[in-house]
Specification:
140 residues; 4 strands; 4-stranded antiparallel beta sheet; alpha+beta
Length: 140
């Protein structure tokens, strides 16, 4: 059963996003970026109270993804990337992105906090940040 309602077009959109944001981090990194996207839809807290669908999440402005402003995002979704998108839409979660609502790629180490949210870990180039459970219980 899906965690987030979606169409095949939504799967392709999420696949394009995770590829554009984390292809350099391999499949696991792409799955973690997918976790963050799904978490933003289900969380209904903080900066993400108006997100109800995959397009809402992908194109959120302000607060969305840099990839949507760059050409690489606008390539056709590959089947391998769609398979990864379907996995996170079915509810697979991967640490350190399990409950994360944010990630970014710093030039150096991961800061302990980012916009008041705690670092939950790093995977290759990306640092992941999660809210307190009391702030966003739906993401836990």
């Amino acid at each position: 059963m899906a965690v987030v309602a979606h169409t095949e077009e939504d799967v392709a959109l999420l696949a394009r996003l995770i590829r554009a944001e984390a292809e350099g981090d391999g499949e696991l990194g792409m799955l973690m970026v997918g976790n963050v996207g799904v978490n933003r839809i289900v969380s209904n807290c903080l900066d993400f109270t108006q997100l109800r669908s995959i397009p809402d999440m992908v194109y959120q402005s302000p607060g969305g993804y840099e990839a949507t402003q760059k050409g690489y995002f606008y390539q056709r979704a590959r089947e391998a990337d769609k398979r990864l998108a379907r996995r996170v839409l079915k509810g697979e979660r991967f640490h350190p992105a399990t409950n994360s609502l944010w990630f970014f790629m710093p030039e150096g180490g991961c800061p302990a906090q980012w916009f008041g949210q705690w670092n939950t870990g790093r995977y290759k180039a990306h640092c992941f940040f999660s809210p307190a459970q009391s702030e966003c219980p739906a993401v836990y």
